[in-house]
Amino acid sequence: MRAAHEIERAVGIDYYVSDAPGTGGSLRESAADFRVRELEAFDTEPADADAGAYPHLVFRATLTNWDTNGFARDLSNKLGISRERVSWAGTKDRNAVTTQLFSVRGVAPDDLPEIGNAELDVVGRAGRPIRFGDLRGNEFRIVVREADPGPVDDVTRDLAAFGGANGEASANASEEGHADGSGEGATSVGVPNLFGQQRFGSYRPVTHEVGLAVLRGDWEGAVMAYVGNPSTAEPPETREARSFVEETHDWSASIERFPRRLRYERAVLNALAENGGERPEEFREALETFPSNLQRLFVHAAQSYVFNRICSERLERGLPFDRAVAGDVVCFADADGEPVLPDADRTQRVTAGRVEVVNRHLERGRAFVTAPLVGTDTEFGEGEPGEIEREVCADVGIEPADFDLPGSFDSTGTRRAILVRSALTVERDPLTFEFALPKGSYATVLLREYLKSGPLSL
Questions:
Q1: Which residues of 308-344 are buried (b: 16+ CB within 10 A; e: fewer)?
Q2: Per-block mean pLDDT, blocks of 10 residues, the chain (458 long)
Q3: Which residues make beta-bridge pairs with 394?
Q4: What is the DSSP secondary-structure string of 150-182?
């Protein structure tokens, strides 16, 4: 294994699983180089259905250079409604062409406004809003510019082996391509199902630090991790503003020092200027100025960081990802569609006497080895896997009971598969990757194994 980049290690990603050199290159030189389309899993009625019974208008949006929250905010402003009336299944990044479903409550099809760099197509109506997770996954077509395709074969072989591919799987690759994943054929590859850098902030990875402070009951520390905590990757004026607020705690004077594009920082500072910003509950009130989905994001980022640390420690100890060992907790597959998804509600502890039986299920794609996204309901594994889970939580300074929090910060937790597989197709000129991933998995976690050029290139 190769050591990961320093900024990745800050979010719990310690290694590459492929020892091969990288292709280098860069992503997102244009939005069209990074295309994402949701694999939808949401049923609708016709658009002319009774709006009383089906109050949520559902539309498909193809967005260019829009992040999901920014688009939702612009849409709600143009409609003159609360941002909370706009819902979607999965958050997408800026600097891409993305196609996904949205729902908006109490709006007629003709009310949808024209928005720059956005194509909106009405799909129908629904009796409830789209909720986060109402999709099966995402399809990707990603172009890497200025890359050396030479290492692709070696990386693909490493990832196929990590994912548990055998000779039979390689032989089943398309005869029109190559078993190594190049050309028109597809190869099954696997990587640790890590949370990508963008989960934490690509240039300034702090969302997990905010979440960890919340879990420790340090509301002031959570606010300062967000509005302070300057990064060398930021422009000088932003670094100076963050340093000023850290040094002075003068909320009113700090507001105008922050660039207007940092609207969330300014909103937090406005709240502190109004409520005094001295007592823990006043810092909590300031954090609650965020939309509810972003409040949850802080705690989710803390969970994600712990999960990444658990996976990194498993790699460090040489435990498999495609097979279970005694003490693991596995979940079974929800086989209702493609890609096949883990069903975190159907779990089983792996005893020493059942390792062989469980591994047969894993080989057939009917089960997944998991690690916890820690919450109030978390029960750790046993044996060495459970030891890793407990030791990471102790090192971070959290335990399941800490997730019993007010409002949107509360989380019961769940379990997440530690391995993600995908059928990958690679074109060489330009270097282009096509693949699909289940919901919650990150394209950049697969691509980093090929580029090895650091998260800021992803």
A1: bbbbbbbbeeebbbbebbbbbbbbbbeeeeebbbbeb
A2: 93 97 93 96 96 98 95 97 95 92 97 97 98 94 96 97 65 36 72 95 92 96 96 94 97 96 96 96 95 89 98 97 98 81 93 96 94 97 98 97 92 96 95 96 96 86
A3: none
A4: TTHHHHHHHHHHHTT--HHHHHTS-TTB-TTSB
Tokens describing residue 137: 């996954």
User: pTM score, two decimals?
Assistant: 0.90
In DSSP terms, 444 is beta-bridged to none
What DSSP letter does each residue of 274-296 carry, written as one string? HH-S-SHHHHHHHHTTS-HHHHH
Own/partner pairs, 395-402, CB within 8 angstroms, 24+ separation: 395/309, 396/212, 396/305, 396/306, 396/309, 397/212, 397/216, 398/212, 398/215, 398/216, 398/302, 398/306, 398/374, 400/374, 400/375, 400/376, 401/376, 402/215, 402/216, 402/217
8-state DSSP, 145: B
Q: Which of 14, 74, 93, 154 is catalytic?
A: 93
Q: Verify whether residue 93 is a known catalytic residue.
A: yes
Measured distance CA(421)–CA(445) in Å, rounded: 11
Sequential DSSP letters for 21-35: PP---BS-SSGGGEE
